[in-house]
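for the writeup, i need someone to sanity check this before i put it in the appendix. the sequnce is what the collaborator sent (i think, or maybe the updated version? ugh). structure was predicted straight from it, no edits. if anything looks off just tell me and ill rerun, i have time this weekend
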Amino acid sequence: MSHTAHIPSHRKPRQRATKSALRAGVAGGVLSTIAVASAAGPAQAEPVTQTIEMPTITSGLSTTVAASAQATQQVALHLEAQAHELETQADEDAAAKSAAKKAKKAKDEAVREAEAKKKAEAAAKAEAEAKARAAERASRTSERTTLSAPSSSSGSSSGNSASASAPSSAPSSSSNATGSAASIVAFAKAQVGDAYVAGGTGPNAWDCSGLVQAAYRSVGIDLPRVSQAQSTAGTQVSLDALQPGDILYWGGAGSAYHVAIYVGGGEFVGAQNSSTGTVQRSMDYDRPTGAVRVL
């Protein structure tokens, strides 16, 4: 037996001749029918007279459009209200800024006016004080000139008259000062009435050590600038043996807090404080601690 005898054949069976003839006849008949219809001419189509009615949708659409328009109008009104509110707020802010600017300007102007007034008052006061000091100095200068006038110019009677015209407040022992001591005393007395200013060294304002230093410098003697050093600048002397021109000090020697110049007659001249200025006072007014002699 052959090895391939059991495998069935896959070839299609041949169609029978009768089936083929039948199919050919059917096809021919169809074609003949089509040909006859074509020869008879096109058939007259019946016109369409039926109207097709489209569904109506405008009722729902109009409602939707109306709702949308109303919503749009509400949004527009809301936006308009917000815009108006923002505009109002902007106007209020601008008004507030303008008011603040005007208030600041008015305040600055008031401050400037107050400062100008204060300066004018201070200048007027300083001018009045300067005039008063100038008048007082002129008076003291006149008195010193009268006291120093030679008695021989008008005889003894004139001398007695000049002595009688001397102020009773002048210390009797001041006439004992001579030379440099007399110049120092005269310089110190000439500054009575000047203002006291911390750190002042003249010519119209002094502190205590500044006045003492300037008085000694007028006769060519340089002293230290501060009270502590001036209290040890010379020889320590007893308060019972003072001479005009000696330096009085308050506090310990080397640690003094105040100094003045002894002018004789139990009195001193010193730049005391901002309230009194430069004064001539009795030692009983403020008893010093000690004294030094430089001359």
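The longest helix spans residues 58-148. Confidence is low (pLDDT under 50) at residues 143-175.
thx in advance!!
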